[in-house]
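Protein: Heat-inducible transcription repressor HrcA
Species: Roseivivax marinus
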Amino acid sequence: MTDAAPKLDHMNDRTREVFRRVVEGYLETGEPVGSRTLTRTLSEKVSAATIRNVMQDLEYLGLLDSPHISAGRVPTQLGLRMFVDGLLEVRELGPGDREALDATLGSNTDDVSGFLDRVGSALSGVTQGASLVLSPKHEAPIRHIEFVSLGPERALVVLVFSDGHVENRVFTPAPGQTPSSMREAANFLNALVEGKTLSEMRREVRAAIAARRQEIDSLAGQLVEEGVAAWADDGQVPERLIVRGRANLLGQDGAGEEELDLIRALFDDLERKRDIAEFLELTETGDGVRIFIGSENKLFSLSGSSLVVSPYMNADRKIIGAVGVIGPTRLNYGRIVPIVDYTAQLVGRLISDRS
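Structure follows.
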C-alpha cells in the first residue's frame, strides 16, 4: 500500500466497523452488502442513512465500490489489501483440515513426487480452490539421459539419477529435430554427464557447445540447448509445477464466460510452466505466508484471482519450493492462510527428514 493510500488508524471506530462488516459479508457471500443489512449487525445502533454516508466516504477513498446503482457495496482490490493487512483474523487450523493434510504422508514417504501430488490434491480438496505445488529440483548426480520424440512439437527426456531416481519430462524441441539428431544429442550429453547434477551439467554443456560447436550439427546443438534449458532453467529454479483442482475455479458459481476464459488462460500458462520463476520469487523475500490479490502479481493480473502462497525449506533453512492456493479474490483468507502455512511446514519437514 502506498503512503498516499488511506490507513485504518485514520478511521474512527464506526467507519472501521462498517468497512470490516462490508468486507466480511462480501467474502462470505460474494454479494454486495447493503446499509440495511449492516443496521442489523453493527455493535452501534445507527440509521441506514448514516451507514450509507459512511459507505460513500469509503467509496470515495477507493476502498469500496458500488457495482450497481442503489445496490450495496463490495471491497475494491485496495480495500481487500487493507483488510488483509490490518483486520484479517486468522483462524486456528481445523482438525478436519489437519487430518486431510496429514493423510498425504501415507506409508511411502520415500516417493517425494507421489507425496507432492497427494499434497496438491489434498490442498485443493480442503480449500475448494486450485492448488500449486512447486517441487524441489533433484540434486543427485545424473547417470544417463535419453531423448524420445513424441511428435513434431513434443519430446520426452528421460533422466536417470545415480540414486535410482528416474524423471520423465516433456519439452518442446527446436523445429526440425530427427531421431538421429536426438540420439546424437543424447550421446553428446552422456559423455559429459557422469557425476554431475543438472545445474553443474548445464554449465558444462554451455561451455562444451561453445568449444565443440563443429563436432555436432546445428540441429543437435539446438536440441541440447532447448532440452537443458527446459530441465534446469538457468540452474536456479525447480522444474516441476503441480497444478490440482483447476475445475474448482472453472466451476465457480456466477463466473461469466469472459472470466472463465481468463482463468483458462491462467492455467494454460501455469501448465506450460512459463511463470515458474515468478511463482518461486513470490516467496523468496522471507519466511511465512504471503497473499497476492488480483493484479498485485502479473501471474494473476488478467484473471483477477488471488494467491495465498508459502515457501517450504530444507534442513538448511534454504527455500527450495512453495505451495499455494489460487481462488477468487473473495477467498476465505482467514481459513486458507493457516492451511497453506501448515502444508508448507509439512512438506518442509518431510524433505528435511529425508535429507
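Remarks: Strands lie at 64-65, 74-75, 130-135, 142-151, 154-161, 166-171, 240-244, 290-293, 305-313, 319-328.
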